[in-house]
Amino acid sequence: MSVRYLNCGDTAFSVEFGTTIAPEINARVMGLHARITAERAAGRLAGVVETIPSMRSLMVCYDPLTATRTELQPAIEALVSGGLDAAAASRTMSIPCCYDDPEFAPDLADVAQRTGLSTEDVIARHLASDFHVYVLGFMPGLAYIVGLAKELELPRRSQPRVHVPRSSVGIAMNMTTIYPFDSPGGWNLLGRTPLRMFDQRREQPVLLAPGDMVRFRRVSRAEYDGITSEVDAGTLDWATLEVRA
Amino acid sequence: MTAHLVVERAGLFDTLQDRGRIGFQALGMPVAGVMDRIAFRLANALVGNADDLAVIEIGVMGPTLRVEADSVRLAVVGPVTLDLMAGPEAAAKPLEANRSHLLLRGQRLRVGMVDGVSTAYLAIEGGLAVAPFMGSLATYTRAGIGGVDGRKLRDGDTLPLVRTAASPRAERKLGTAFDYGRGPIRVVPGPQVDHFSDAGHATFLGSEYAVSKEADRMGIRFEGPVIAHSDKGPDIVSDGIAPGSIQVPGAGLPIVLLADRQTVGGYAKIATVISADLPRLGRMLPGQKVTFAAVTVAEAEALRRDQEKRLAQAVAGLQPALPEGGIDLTALYERNLIDGVVWA
């Protein structure tokens, strides 16, 4: 599919690489996001304010008092036709998750029943999935993390919950997510992480970024409680979550 | 010596706002910020601030504020009633909006109902001594971020001021009310033009829509004729949302997304309100009616540049204003506090 440049008023336009969810499409989105970020850091593309990656397109936000669409689009087209290398080596983040407390995993048994797997197999497949953050949105820090094992693919709950606790880990379709806030939600809840996806006390409060690889790590309730105290105290160093190659 | 404004009685929906949190939408962080950047800029200009200092955005009805500083210069921009109460027992004296005022310690300013639009803006000379979060003071209540504890103002809140006293200079007023424009709200069609039938586009551009009761800082849901989708339907794989994006879910009624909009969304968007018309649209109240008219991107950019030129002229054309409110606050201030300063 050829790239389309879609009108979004006079302060943005979308560079659309496709209309579906696919790794090769998202890789181009993230490639252009990285290229534009680098160009701006080098003092070029004046007038571009920020870019918003989504599953299959990149929104370029601009200030119409500084630049026009007629000036910016050819510059972006040149970046696209120059080839979009895979985004710079992304991080792999290891996310501790407690699957063993029924309060944390209210849908585990239901997911097992609907997929015909044992609860241990459900957990094992979630742990074995190679996840990749495609996009953040809907709420600050809410990551749509693609790559769920095929056997676990299910729709969202037909009846969304009014209250899903912060840091709940859920699955739906080919994705997993982690709730950054207490909120309503319809994902199937398999566990809870002691981490906070959004922590206002930090200068950079959002844990995951588009392009990150994610693996889950099973922790006991005791280990969950230990990490929770560190998170509550604000002493947990996020850098320790990065998996070193 | 700290200086504060004390919120004696909160209004309906007062929040601290500025230009918003820019540069973090890739992390899912909404921009937030003022709904009406025109009144925001004029209010700051009236008190002599830089363009983008945080202000109090007043939603529907304003607060009563008490001055706990030697003096403070304030300006409220918008169609709103103001009253000055010089002491606990003193009778209220009306003050004009759309100009600056000097208030002294212990005096109270009562901001009344905003008339005919949804917002007014209160700027404070020197601004508020509140720490920015992700580069902004803008309050985003859905995530409890920014402003005062991420929420609207409450009775008893104290707002720390940067200045302990107003600067010695004359008050200013707006020359003429800024023209926000009239007639149809201009839109640029797209991005998902192909998700709507020809009839759907004709309905959207040829019908009158009314602001529903579901109108807030996140967006305005309109009521009116149903817009027909094409066979591609209302759902898309989520993509970015611009300020003024008009999404049309399955029910066929348009929703314009405003300051607190989410960063990405999964409904087809028929058009985007142009930036020059967003302040006008963002001020609308439930029941008010609009029509939409299509323009090109280049026309939209030109309209915005023209509006910016007029706004700069309005700022340059601010006029000196005489003290009002029954007592000559400026003279009082001048005599008592800064004897000998020559006024411009």
Describe this structure in words.
The complex is a heterodimer of chains A (245) and B (344). Chain A has helices at 23-41, 69-81, 108-115, 119-128, 221-233, and strands spanning 4-7, 12-16, 48-53, 57-62, 92-97, 131-136, 143-146, 161-164, 168-172, 175-178, 183-185, 188-192, 213-218. Chain A has 245 residues and is of the alpha+beta class. The longest helix of chain A has 19 residues, at 23-41. The two termini of chain A are 35 Å apart. Chain B contains five helices and 23 strands. In chain B, a hairpin with a 7-residue loop joins strand 17 (245-247) and strand 18. The longest helix of chain B is centred in the C-terminal third of the chain and has 20 residues, at 297-316. Chains A and B meet through strand 2, strand 3 and strand 4 of A and strand 13, strand 16, strand 20 and helix 4 of B.
Which percent range describes the beta-strand content of chain B? 25-35%
Describe the sheet with the most strands of chain B.
8 strands, mixed
Q: Write down the overall mean pLDDT of chain A.
A: 94
N-to-C order of helices and strands of chain A: EEHEEHEHHEEEEEEEEH
Quantity of strands of chain B, as a count: 23
Structural class by helix and strand composition of chain B: alpha+beta
Provide key terms for this protein:
heterodimer; A: 245 residues; alpha+beta; four-stranded antiparallel sheet; 13 strands; 26% helix; B: 344 residues; eight-stranded mixed sheet; 5 helices; 31% strand; disordered C terminus
